[in-house]
Amino acid sequence: MEGAPRPTLRSLDVVAMIVGLVIGAGIFKAPAVVAANTGSETALMLTWLAGGAVSILGALCYAELAAAYPNTGGEYHFLQRAYGRAVGFLFAWSRLVVLQTGSIALLAFVLGDYAAQIVPLGRHGPTLFAAAAVLLLTGLNLLGLRSSTSVQNTLTLFTLGGLLLVIAVGLTFQAADAKPSPPMAGGDSALGLAMVFVLLTYGGWNEAAYLSAELKEVQRRMWKVLVTGIGTITLIYLLVNCAYLNVLGLEAMAGSEAVTADLMRQVLGEPGALIISALIVVAVFASINVTILTGARTNYALARDFRQFRFLGHWSPQVNAPTRALLIQGAIALLLVASGAAGRSGFEAMVSYVSPVFWLFFLLTTISLIVLRRREPDRERPFRVPVYPYTPLLFAAACAYMFWSSLAYSGWGALLGMLVLAAGIPFCTARHRQG
Q1: How far apart, in Å, are the Cα atoms of 210 and each of 85, 302, 383, 392?
Q2: How many Å apart are CA 196 and CA 186, to the nearest integer?
Q3: Rounded distance between C-alpha atoms, residue 163 and residue 4, angstroms
């Protein structure tokens, strides 16, 4: 019989994990894009506040699923249970070709933009740095060199430390030439695109919700933990954006390629920009390493469940790593880096590529909560989402809106992401013909 997680975590443990999982590289890049798509400073701040509210709704839905069906497969397990193996397969396929590899490329472009602040290499400098990071870290994982948990935790503290530094500097000082920004062009389409980037930056709470099965007194504490964790993140994000606005103003934020470096440059000069850029490069380097490491292992698991991907299932005992999965993942990520370099911003191109697939499976997972409630009414549910069914329906509506926004406003990248997802359908139907 499959073992079940034991409730050993305290509320403080889970809150810390939520904050550590969610706060990452996006907050150093996304605010500039959000500023370019909101019409005023008030709209900018309300957009970030709305992102926190939507994230809390989603986290409550995922918490019930995770508590009722504890499984390391996460969404893959929920989707397969609710809709069958075909949908589970497409989700696993999407992680291989869109979600995980797109996230690697996205992080690599954040690193590239800030590394170019330290060592300018011309117009293609950020892309060169991004490709070098993917190659180097894939190579290190192929050699079996993995960062320890303590090192990763230390680098997470670097990220939080960098944000606190930005908040302290940005709210304490103001550049002499900073002035209130005039209203900028906005609208429903711009707001939809801004929310795509905001909610991407809040991404990660879905992983944290899986810890619900290991939380002591889950029925009493789960909602408090989720609200506290995401509330803390929302407060940090609001303070960071206040700092950006205080020093740069909305218009300068919107035109920035490395908004955090520009803030530090405005207040502390070039040395401040170099220091914060180096800090961000180190933190993002660690994030890419973790994403490469975990992504290759989920793709290795894909090979065990679906024989079409048996070639990914080789595990090297010499380096204790799934070498073929690492190679394929690295190759796809490099292709995405190369394709993203064609536009003005590789970061924005990767968000466009990943977002519609991301929100499609968020929508399906949220609906699976309702499906499984109806199909298995007697299932023990240690945590139940409050105000059912309105909470999951409201979050499902938000997911549907974000899916539509991703398709409508993200250009060719969104279409490419959906086409790559659809390319997995023949593998899925072939499997059913064989079985």
Answers
A1: 21, 20, 12, 17
A2: 15
A3: 37
Do 364 and 83 touch, CB atoms closer than 8 A?
A: yes
Give this prediction's pTM.
0.83
Question: What type of residue is 287?
Answer: S
Query: What's the CA gap between 279 and 166, in Å, rounded?
Result: 12
Which residue spans within 185-342 are E strands per DSSP? none
> DSSP code of 319?
T
Burial class, 207, CB count within 10 angstroms (exposed 0-12 / middle 13-18 / buried 19+): middle
In Å, how far are 29, 82, 304, 367, 378 from 375, measured between CA atoms? 43, 9, 28, 12, 9
Residue 168 Cα distances to 15, 240, 242, 342, angstroms: 23, 9, 11, 36
Q: In the structure encoding, which two tokens stand for residue 32, read together?
A: 């500039």
* Cβ within 8 Å of residue 210, ≥6 positions away: 62, 66, 70, 74
Q: Distance of CA 16 to CAs 64, 156, 229, Å?
A: 20, 11, 7
Closest CA relative to residue 22, chosen from 242, 298, 333, 232: 232
Distance CA 407, CA 419 (A): 12
Task: Print pLDDT tens along the chain (435 aa).
Answer: 344 445 666 677 667 767 766 777 788 888 998 999 887 899 999 999 999 999 999 988 988 888 888 766 678 888 989 999 889 889 988 988 999 899 899 999 989 988 998 998 888 888 999 999 999 989 888 887 655 455 556 666 777 787 888 899 888 876 555 455 555 555 455 788 899 899 988 987 776 666 655 666 655 666 777 788 888 899 999 999 999 999 989 989 988 888 989 999 988 888 888 988 888 888 788 778 878 877 777 777 677 777 777 777 777 777 677 888 888 899 999 999 988 766 667 888 888 899 999 999 999 999 999 999 999 999 988 888 989 999 999 999 999 999 998 888 767 888 889 999 999 888 776 554 444
Rounded Cα gap, residues 142 and 35, in angstroms: 40
